[in-house]
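User: C-alpha cells for this one?
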Amino acid sequence: MTSASLLINVIFYFIQKEAKMKTKTLITEYDSLSPWLDELPFQWTTLEKEGQLIELKKGEVIFHSHQPSESVYIVKAGRIRLFSVSELGDEKAIAIMGRNGLLGECSLFQEKTYSTNAVTASPSQLIKLTAATFMKEVLHDPTYCLQVWEMMSVKIRLLSFHTTQLAFRSSFQRTTDMFLQLGLTYGDKLDANRIHITIPFTHQEMANLVGATRVTIANHIRSLLELGVISKSGKEYTIQDLSKLLQHVNHPRSFLDYKREEEK
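Assistant:
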C-alpha cells in the first residue's frame, strides 16, 4: 500500500468514526427528551395509600392553568395531556403523562396555581392527594424528594426542548424527531436498523406535540411511508430504516417535496 493510499484510508476511518459518534450523541439526546412520559421508573406506594383513587373517561378535565393547585395526582393507568393555551385558544402540548407520572407537583412551590392544563387522552386511573398531604409525605422521605425533583427536571428539559424545536426546526424535522423519540423510548429493536414502536398514537396526538396541524402531520407521515423510512400496521408504526430517519432529522423538508417540485 502506498503512503497516499494509507493516508486516504486513515482519513476515511476518522470520518466514519466521527459520523458514528455524532449519531450516537444524537440518539442519546433524543432518547432522554421524549414527551411521551409513560411507564416511569418511580414508585409511590406510601403516597398512594394516603390518596383517593379516581377513574376518568377520555376527554375529562383534571385541572386548568391558573386554577388553585389544591391537589397532586399520581397516574396509575391511562394517558394525560399536559398543554398550554394561548389567548386565541390555540393549544401547545407539553407532554403526555402515563403510568407513575405526577400531575400538579410543579405548582406547589411558587404561585400555588397550576401552570398547565391537564386533560385525559384515554380512560385513566389517578390517585388524588391534597397538596398538604403530598408535601408532608415527600418532605419526610428522601426517595420521594429525589423522584419529585427528577420529574420536575424532566418537565423543565422538555419545555426547553420544545422552545428550541419551535424556534429553529421545521414541522417536518419535528415530525422525524418525534418518530425517533418514540422509537428510542417505546421501541422493540428488530435488528440494527429497524425498531417497532409499541405505543399507538393518533395524527392529532402527534400534531399537538409537534405544534402543527393534523393535516400537516398526515402529509409528513405519508412522505416517510413512501420513502420506506417507516411502515404502518394497524395503529402501530415501525421504523424500517433508522439511518435514513437520522438523515431526515437534519433536513427541513422531505426529499419527496424536492422531487415533487422538480416534476412540476
